[in-house]
Automatic annotation (TrEMBL), chain A:
Residues 8-37, 38-68 form the 4Fe-4S ferredoxin-type domain. GO terms for molecular function: ferredoxin hydrogenase activity; iron ion binding; iron-sulfur cluster binding. The lineage of its organism: Bacteria, Bacillati, Bacillota, Clostridia, Eubacteriales. The keyword Oxidoreductase does not apply. It comes from the Bacteria. Pfam families: Fe_hyd_lg_C, Fer4. This is Ferredoxin hydrogenase. It comes from Thermosyntropha lipolytica DSM 11003. Keywords: Iron, Iron-sulfur, Metal-binding.
From TrEMBL, chain B:
This is Tat (Twin-arginine translocation) pathway signal sequence. GO terms for cellular component: periplasmic space. Residues 41-104 form the Iron hydrogenase small subunit domain. Gene3D superfamilies: Iron hydrogenase, small subunit (4.10.260.20).
Length: 389, 120
């Protein structure tokens, strides 16, 4: 079944496992073996590396592999030009590790602390989130034209188009539904687009030999550690992203370096060139966010009109499966096209949606899938909450 | 085995009494643990707060649409599709798009054969 290499990202420490069985209830793919009273272990063939078990284990018995040492080594190496990118969801959760309320915006402090840690350039994954919208949005428009019979678009992929930002969803689709793969957008995730443009475009502009460049991602996600090691992610001629650390691991590095995080300025910005971003990129970290960002751009390009209100509130919310219809006046077709969209958050809810598509019953044009309930802000790499009522 | 011999061990009746209490406790503890954990996981207000945090950030941004990002326009005009903003250009395809499942080995061959992006 497995078409891609399986890397063992998430592991259960047998000594710490209390056999409580809670992890099996949050695992979206049934990858955890065991029942109450029996030590649990992970079937890595089924595991999508999402880390939901890790952040929900009451005993802290589940861990993810760490690339922190690799990052520290690169930072200490004068030969290396170390570049860092940070995902949207990190900036509203990192503060929790320093006693701030969940949702507190620490974007500026985050950039400041990364500079203090010694990164040569502090960029932003949000830049490549915008780039993802350009590529994935255009791909969607082409598929819609193909579907409408516009000449010149015959070779485009089928509808509906699925989003492809979530590495857990990608692995799940590859493992379980190979027939759905033509429906996936071919656009890489923002993390991987960043690595590819950093070691080509940015390296060229900065006059850096890409062989000396080391790209680090700070991610709310454990599956990103898997994604960066995928063998095909070498478009720059090198491994595009060299290492991934989680929000938790960045907090740990900041603490170890003795940086007083809370006193840092919150006004610092990411470096220019591949660091500027828009609000559309910011909401990538929330379920429905990629959809809303894509709609903002697709609507304006298809209609040739400027949106008065940029929010598409119909796609927001936390229901695991949501749907909405957006009427777009398509200039090229001379008529209004109702675009049916669907948002899935929580991979355990995706089967029905995928099976409808495979059976030809689906009425959707565009489907967003994110593994973690609520989106990346609740990813497996985020600060662990022990909140109770 | 002489545990049921009255003098040196316990009686058969005592054994079943003990075993019964142990079994009942084990079942009870298991059920309680499960309920306890369900209560434990119940609070997820932090998810709501993090979501609100990102939406607030979006509202504060001066530019809120991807295609209006000046650095996005720049990367297309200077690098991905020289002179114009044209997503899905050849270079964009090479650097920003991928393949899945069984198509991956062929993609890897192509990427390594061309020796990086310079050939694109």
């Amino acid at each position: 079944m497995n078409t891609v290499a399986t890397k063992e990202i998430i592991n259960i420490d047998e000594k710490k496992c209390k056999s409580c069985d809670h992890c099996t209830s949050v695992c979206p793919t049934g990858a955890i073996q065991g029942r109450i009273g029996v030590k649990h272990y992970i079937d890595h063939k089924k595991c999508v590396n999402c880390g939901q078990c890790l952040i929900n284990c009451p005993f802290g018995a589940i861990t993810d592999i760490s690339m922190v040492e690799k990052v520290k080594k690169a930072l200490a190496d004068p030969q290396k030009f170390v570049v860092v990118q940070t995902a949207p969801a990190v900036r509203v959760a990192l503060g929790e590790e320093f006693g701030l309320e969940p949702g507190t915006n620490v974007k500026g402090k985050m950039f400041a602390s990364l500079r203090k840690l010694g990164f040569d350039k502090v960029y932003d994954t949000e830049f490549t989130a915008d780039l993802t919208i350009m590529e994935e949005g255009t791909e969607l428009i082409h598929r819609i034209f193909a579907h409408a019979g516009v000449p010149g678009y015959e070779k485009e992929g089928p509808l509906p188009q699925f989003t492809s930002c979530c590495p857990a969803w990608i692995k799940y689709a590859e493992d379980k539904y190979p027939k759905i793969l033509p429906h996936l957008s071919s656009a890489k995730s923002p993390q991987q687009m960043f690595g590819a443009v950093a070691k080509t475009y940015a390296a060229e502009k900065l006059g850096i030999n890409p062989a000396d460049m080391f790209v680090v991602s700070v991610m709310p996600c454990t599956a990103k550690k898997f994604e960066c090691q995928r063998e095909e992610m070498i478009a720059s001629g090198f491994q595009d992203v060299d290492a991934v650390i989680t929000t938790r691991e960045l907090a740990q590095m900041i603490k170890e370096a003795g940086i007083d995080f809370r006193s840092l300025s919150n006004e610092e910005q990411a470096d220019r060139l591949i660091g500027t971003s828009t609000g559309a990129a910011t909401i990538f970290g929330v379920t429905g966010g990629v959809m809303e960002a894509a709609l903002r751009t697709a609507y304006e390009i298809l209609s040739g009109q400027s949106l008065g209100v940029v929010e598409f509130k119909a796609v927001r919310g936390r229901k695991p499966v949501r749907e909405a219809t957006v009427n777009i006046p398509v200039k090229e077709l001379g008529k209004t096209v109702p675009l049916n969209v669907c948002i899935v958050t929580g991979l355990s809810h995706v089967d029905g949606v995928v099976e409808d598509v495979l059976a030809g019953r689906s009425k959707y044009h565009f489907i967003e899938v994110m593994n973690c309930p609520g989106g990346c802000i609740n990813g497996g790499g985020q600060p662990i909450r022990r909140d109770t009522y | 085995m002489n545990i049921f011999v009255e003098k040196s061990g316990i009686t058969r009746r005592q054994f079943f009494k003990g075993a019964g209490i142990l079994a009942a406790t084990a079942v009870f503890a298991g059920v309680l643990a499960k309920i306890g954990i369900d209560i434990y996981k119940a609070s997820d207000k932090y998810i709501e707060k993090r979501i609100a945090g990102l939406y607030t950030l979006d509202e504060k941004m001066t530019i809120r649409k991807s295609h209006e990002n000046p650095e996005i326009i720049q990367i297309y005009k200077e690098f991905l599709s020289p002179g114009e903003v044209r997503p899905l250009s050849e270079k964009a395809h090479h650097l920003l798009h991928t393949k899945y499942g069984n198509d991956i080995p062929k993609l890897i061959t192509e990427l390594t054969a061309h020796g990086g992006h310079h050939a694109a």
